[in-house]
Amino acid sequence: MPDLICSLVNLPPIQPLMKRINERGIHLRRANPWEWTPLRQFIVTNFSEKWADETSVAMARQPVSCFVATHEKKIIGFADYECTRRGYFGPTGVLEFHRGSGVGTALLIASLIGLRDMGYTYAIIGGAGPVDFYRKTVGAIVIPFDEGRGIYRLEDDPAFTS
Ligand SMILES: CC(C)(COP(=O)(O)OP(=O)(O)OC[C@H]1O[C@@H](n2cnc3c(N)ncnc32)[C@H](O)[C@@H]1OP(=O)(O)O)[C@@H](O)C(=O)NCCC(=O)NCCS
Question: What digits encode the pLDDT tens for the residues 74-126?
Fold first, then answer.
């Protein structure tokens, strides 16, 4: 799975995305520290323990760098930034039932605004699965490195091996 890069300079406005999901009774906001236990359970149950571990970094930051989407007060999606590495977006996931309604895009744009507010002009999407989703929503492009140049599955820290 490749790493992607996307510009933060001309992000689409978030208000129309918020309006679209609000019309479906879905809300988007930063996660609160007291929600960590249910959020962790949500991620482990629907995605993976590894994604929950990555999200633990977002939850320990101030402000928390995880956004959640809720429906009837229950978490239905999440997205993190600045947690796996500096300048990184992800992980992210939306419950299958709620996919295709703009929730993933709203979570993505909220997080990218978070990165832009930190001073970044580009974001990295590390080990991206749905490349077409990122291409379509924010014009992300694949970083043209050979497989194995990303951070996942490294056995030695490159900082100590050269
Ligand atoms: C990727 C994901 C977060 C997208 O959430 P979503 O709420 O379905 O996204 P949206 O409804 O905002 O979709 C926006 C557009 O991207 C498209 N899209 C969504 N998921 C896609 C995918 N996996 N591949 C290609 N296109 C996709 C949608 O069809 C939509 O296109 P449209 O505007 O023409 O209708 C969701 O599919 C998911 O949770 N996937 C499993 C976890 C995952 O892969 N996370 C990413 C890890 S890098």
Answer: 999 999 999 999 999 999 999 999 999 999 999 999 999 999 999 999 999 99
Residue 43: its H or E element: helix 36-46
Helix (H) or strand (E) holding 74: strand 74-81
**158 contact partners, CB below 8 Å, separation of at least 6:** none
Residue type at 56 in one-letter notation: S
Q: Whose C-alpha lies nearest to ligand 1, atom 8?
A: 99
The preferred substitution site among 20, 44, 50, 99 for testing ligand 1, maximizing ligand atoms within 8 Å of CB, is 99
Q: Specify whether the CB–CB gap between 148 and 158 falls below 8 A.
A: no
- Ligand 1 binding pocket includes 104 (Cβ within 6 Å): yes
| Domains annotated on the chain, with CATH | 4-160 (3.40.630.30)
What pTM did the predictor assign? 0.96
Strands 66-71 and 74-81: antiparallel
137 lines ligand 1 (CB under 6 A): yes
Starting at the earlier edge strand, list the strands of the sheet with 88-94. 26-30, 66-71, 74-81, 88-94, 122-125, 4-7, 141-142
